[in-house]
Each structure stands twice: as structure tokens, then as C-alpha cells.
From TrEMBL:
Record's keyword terms, sorted: Membrane, Transmembrane, Transmembrane helix
Family: Belongs to the RER1 family.
UniProt organism field: Brassica cretica (Mustard)
Designated name of the protein: Protein RER1
PANTHER family: PROTEIN RER1 (PTHR10743), PROTEIN RER1B (PTHR10743:SF13)
């Protein structure tokens, strides 16, 4: 038997999931909403001149999400020995679509949740650890560049592009 509080919480969770599921096909509006949440977070951090360690942790987490978003579900280096499904490497290979390790919806949802949690953390002074923020920024930029260099070299080595640009159309198909 569920208590009335549990029933209300379950109903609230169902309503939340219902509206979250309705946002799935509207990726542009979802990302605009996340951009608004990001700008509100930045405005809060810059207006109070603090919580830079929270921003640094948020940046590391977002970098981790980005790597998952850009990576294939099955790593060609690890899967080549198994003989399983891999990305095509030659023109004669069968076409296999790029399947992400972290799908776009989960990437968006995790990123938006991270911004909201970081925003809420800025209301508690226990998280305002005094740090020299330029050092954190420089360290994060170096980490980003090194990580992206490794990811891009992996993409070039295994010949995959994690973005679909759309159907290739010839300009002269009617001639």
C-alpha cells in the first residue's frame, strides 16, 4: 500500500515524464531552453563573483558528456578483435550508421540537469570555495584542447563523423 504522499509524488513524476517526453521531437526549442538556463547560471555566477569551483566542476562534467556524445557506441579499437559490428573503413564495406554512446536527448537532458543543479548550489555558501579562477580556466582550456585533439584524431583514424549534415543533393540532377 502506498501512502498518499507516495501517490502524489508518483503522479507528479508521471506528469513530469509526460511533458519531458513531449519535448523529444522539439530539439531546437530544447536547446534554446538550455541556453537560457546557461545564461541565467552565468549571470548568477558573475553577479555574485564566486562559485568558480562549481563552474569548473560543471565544465569537467560537460566535457565528459561531450566526449560521450561524440563517441561511437562501439569503439572500433576495442571491437576489432571481437569481429563484431564496426564502422566501415573501406568503400566496399557495408554502410553502418553512426550510433552515439550518448544519444542527443540524454546529452541535452544531462546538460540541462547539470546547469540546474549548479545553479541551485550557488545558493549555499558551503560550495563557495575561494579559488583563483584564471588558473582553473587555463587548466580547463588545456584539458579541453587535449581531450578534443585525442577525440578528433580518433575520429580521423576510424573515419567517422558524428554529425549528419543531411542528404547530399547534386545541383545538376535535372540536366
Amino acid at each position: 500500500m502506498a501512502t498518499p504522499v507516495q501517490k502524489r509524488a508518483h503522479e507528479a513524476w508521471r506528469v513530469y515524464k509526460y511533458y519531458l517526453d513531449k519535448t523529444t521531437p522539439h530539439s531546437t526549442y530544447r536547446w534554446i531552453g538550455t541556453l537560457v538556463v546557461f545564461l541565467i547560471y552565468c549571470l548568477r555566477v558573475f553577479s555574485i563573483h564566486g562559485f568558480y569551483i562549481i563552474s569548473y566542476g560543471l565544465g569537467i562534467y560537460l566535457l565528459n558528456l561531450l566526449i560521450g556524445f561524440l563517441s561511437p557506441l562501439v569503439d572500433p579499437e576495442l571491437d576489432a578483435s571481437d569481429g563484431g559490428a564496426s564502422l566501415p573503413t573501406r568503400g566496399s564495406d557495408e554502410f553502418k550508421p553512426f550510433i552515439r554512446r550518448l544519444p542527443e536527448f540524454k546529452f541535452w537532458y544531462s546538460m540541462t540537469k547539470a546547469f540546474c543543479i549548479a545553479f541551485l548550489m550557488t545558493f549555499f555558501s558551503v560550495f563557495d570555495v575561494p579559488v583563483f579562477w584564471p588558473i582553473l580556466l587555463c587548466y580547463w582550456v588545456v584539458l579541453f584542447v587535449l581531450t578534443m585533439r585525442r577525440q578528433i584524431s580518433h575520429m580521423i583514424k576510424h573515419k567517422y563523423i558524428p554529425f549528419s549534415i543531411g542528404k547530399q543533393v547534386s545541383l545538376f540532377h535535372n540536366l
